[in-house]
Structure of Transcription antitermination protein NusB:
Amino acid sequence: MSKPSFTRHEIREKALQALFPLDFNVDLTKQDAISYALELDNQEIISEDGEEFVPTYLDLLVGGVCDRKAELDEIIKKHLGNNWSITRIAKMDLIILRIAIFEMLYVGDVPNTVALDEAIELAKKYSDDRSRKFVNGVLANVMKDIDSK
């Protein structure tokens, strides 16, 4: 049995599926959340040696977003309009923003435009059109700040 292969797009989707319950359930471990996300579409996640297989990039995204959640949220707050508070953002959209900003700041081989485009694709699938536009607007401003440094 070979290890399943995932595209980076699929891994971002799995990261979103793992991070969403982690935001609500403080007793859930990162590893359990990743396992549940991988099992959602009945993916075979056992490698040839009988060990559970977790794609490295998935572990990096979920762990990185969890570890830097407060920092990522501060960046998001900084780029919200005057009438907005981070508590008004739908959880799914907030997690999409966190993943994209983490990639922009900490994943060197992912261009910022790719992180932005991938976030928009996730928002299209998991949110509505207004959310997609909101995610696009916030991330475009974040990207502008990052690129100007």
